[in-house]
Amino acid sequence: MKVINPKKLVCMDSYASKYNYSIDLAYARNDNLLFGERIYKKSAQLWLYKDLAEIVFTASKYCFEEYKVRFILYDGLRTTDAQEAMMRTKRVLDNPHWLEKPRLLSPSGAGGHPRGMAIDIGLEDKSGELLDMGCMFDCLTERAHREHEHSPKIMHNREMLDNSMDMAARNLNVQLLPLPEEWWDFRLPPEIYEQYKPLSDNNLPKHMRLVN
């Protein structure tokens, strides 16, 4: 498998003002919806593999100019150390069925996140108010599924996000997979990310590491 050079990861925090998005790194908070406790260290930043970062830059700019709403980025690179820490949280230990097939939580090293090749995105207005997407980010119910029917307003909000990301991927000629079970999750397809080894904190310079 290929090894990702950390130099190919982009710090999304550094470009937020340029491309009109905000960052709320969910797992650096104690009150995140899914785990209810901090996974990342307070100083953690959001990193993405360069191809996906370019899609987000282009899509966020388009979304703001076309729809007058902003992206809010919740998570990108999620190292294997972070994934393992998630499995040790009280909420996961209290809900062992989350780890049974079909799993609600990916095992360590699986998926696009531990390669910086998946991004979780919501929408907010210019005042920072979240748009109604049918359920909150990380609400793992059927309401989060892309095919779930919602009110026209909610469906329009989701379409703004999907259209922006699809437009950017097509213009950059990069394949993009919107995860069917989660309206917020966009990733490079498995045939791309599975070519690369997942990243641990030890694979990264100290300033890029996510957990203590």
- Would you list the SSEs in sequence order as H and E? EEEHEHHEHEEH
Strand adjacency order, main sheet? 2-4-5-7-6
Helicity, as a percent range: 25-40%
Count up the domains: 1
CATH topology name:
Muramoyl-pentapeptide Carboxypeptidase, domain 2
CATH class: Alpha Beta
Look at the helices and sheets and give the structural class: alpha+beta
Q: Count of DSSP E strands?
A: 7
Mean model confidence by pLDDT? 96
First-last Cα distance: 27 Å
Report low-confidence residues grouped into runs of 5 or more.
none
Strand content: 5-15%
The description of the largest β-sheet is: 5 strands, mixed
Q: How does the overall form come out from the CA principal axes?
A: globular
Describe what this molecule looks like in 3D.
With 212 residues, the chain is an alpha+beta fold. The protein has a single domain (6-208), classed as Muramoyl-pentapeptide Carboxypeptidase, domain 2 (2-Layer Sandwich), CATH 3.30.1380.10. It contains 5 helices and 7 strands. The strands form 2 sheets. The chain has a 5-stranded mixed β-sheet. It has a two-stranded antiparallel sheet with strand order 1-3. α1 packs across α4 (152-172). The protein is globular. The relative contact order is 0.21.
State the gist of this model.
The chain is built from five helices and seven strands; from the N terminus they run βββαβααβαββα. It is α+β, with helices and mostly antiparallel strands and about 210 residues long. It has a single domain, classed as 2-Layer Sandwich (Muramoyl-pentapeptide Carboxypeptidase, domain 2).
